[in-house]
Amino acid sequence: QADFKVIIGEWVRPDGGYIVRVQDVNPDGSLDAGYFNPCKINIAEANVSLRKELVKLFIKLQDKGYPGSTYTLYYYPEKDALAGFYYQAAVGQTYEVVFFRKKVE
């Protein structure tokens, strides 16, 4: 059983300052998460699962400018990073992205 709580924290995408904030992970894989750019963007769906021994975070956005856009991210413990893909539904394009954990000061 993977420790999904490892993704709890604030994650920053350095190529634009986008933020994923994971506040809690539930035993069923659902989670309390927020997405900001810099204002809050509505999340339609968010869950965590295990894929090939990696913790996988999936977020589906549903807001003005983001209808149906998704993040599929994997946690890499050696880098303490979430990396994967952002699908921008409005233009039908997928981009490789990475988020780094914001350090507590």
Beta-strand level of the residues, as a percent range?
over 45%
Rg, alpha carbons: 13 Å
Question: Which descriptor suits the 3D outline?
Answer: globular
**Physical arrangement of strands within the biggest beta sheet:** 4-3-2-1-9-8-7-6-5
| Number of DSSP strand runs | 9
| Spatial gap, N to C terminus | 31 Å
Helical proportion, percent range = under 10%
Give the low-pLDDT segments: none
Structural class: mainly beta
Succession of helices and strands: EEEEEEEEE
Helical stretch tally = 0
Biggest β-sheet description: 9 strands, antiparallel
Q: Can you give the mean pLDDT?
A: 94
List keywords for this structure.
105 residues, mainly beta
Task: Describe the structure concisely for a colleague.
This protein is 0% helix and 59% strand. The chain is mainly β.
List the helices and strands and how they pair.
Layout lengths: L8 E5 L4 E8 L5 E6 L3 E2 L1 E9 L2 E8 L8 E7 L4 E8 L4 E9 L4
Antiparallel strand pairs: 1-2, 1-9, 2-3, 3-4, 5-6, 6-7, 7-8, 8-9
